Fold this sequence. Notes:
By secondary structure, the protein is an all-alpha fold. It contains four helices and no strands. The radius of gyration is 17 Å and the shape is globular. The termini are far apart.
Amino acid sequence: MELWKVSQKVSELSDLIPYYFFSLVSSCMSLSTVLVVFSQDTWGVIGIIVISFYVVIPYLLFAVPVQVLFNKHPKKFSVIYFCLYIFFSLPAVFIYSSVLNFDFSMDILTKKNYYAISLLAALFFWFWDSVFLQKKSSAS
């Protein structure tokens, strides 16, 4: 590949980095807010901030690479993209929960919270991805 083509690709991606950042931060804050509200603890704003720092890791590892791939063929609020985000969210939440709880058993798959958190993580990321990055409108 010629150097000018690589430079052009990097330039195109650098224009989108702020939008990836806004999408990531919005997703983290949304998921953290819901987790704090439904945990019924008195964490408040501090809990939202702390949980956001924990949530950003699986989003960076699992969702952002998929988001970059989807941005090659942008579609706002695509049901197919949402289903794929759910597909990637399930193993991400499983791995992250297992690592955080030091429990690598399959018991987590029997808990409703696992599926609720996976669905919410995918929903928020899909929504904010559609708002900030998916420029072309389509009928899903």
